[in-house]
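Thread: Newbie trying to understand structure tokens

Hi all, I'm a second-year student working on a class project, and my supervisor (Dr. K.) asked me to get a predicted structure for one chain before our next meeting. I've only ever worked with sequences, so writing a 3D structure as a token string is new to me. If someone could post the tokens and maybe explain what I'm looking at, I'd be very grateful. Here's the chain:
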Amino acid sequence: MRKGEKEQVISSLGAFGINLKVHNAGQRFINSRTMMDYRDQDGLVYRQATPLLHTVTNAEEKRHIIGDTFMHLATEFMNQLQQNGEKIFLAQGTLRPDLIESASSLASSKAHVIKTH
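---
Reply by user tm_fold:
Sure, no problem. This is what the structure looks like when written as tokens:
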């Protein structure tokens, strides 16, 4: 989220009486990595772990790392809440289209990379 957005969302939804549980996962994101398919100089595909997010400059690698990390964290958080018997509504911004566009295997097995730079 951008600076100040978390507070704005909490305030806006709180005005409707919605009780939020906000999870700050910034450190988990910047220290995360994922597995990606790459092509070697002969065009052969190989699978390899990406570098940690905070060291990545390639936009496509960043999208994969962020998308996969979000899916892992969301699943983890929802499982914790369900164990407490709570009803769950997961809210997020435009991440779902980004996950699909980035071909996150955790979002869709049929996604294609659209944003190739």
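A couple of things are worth pointing out once you decode it. Helices lie at 5-14, 26-30, 59-83, 95-101. The chain has four helices and two strands. Feel free to ask follow-ups in this thread.
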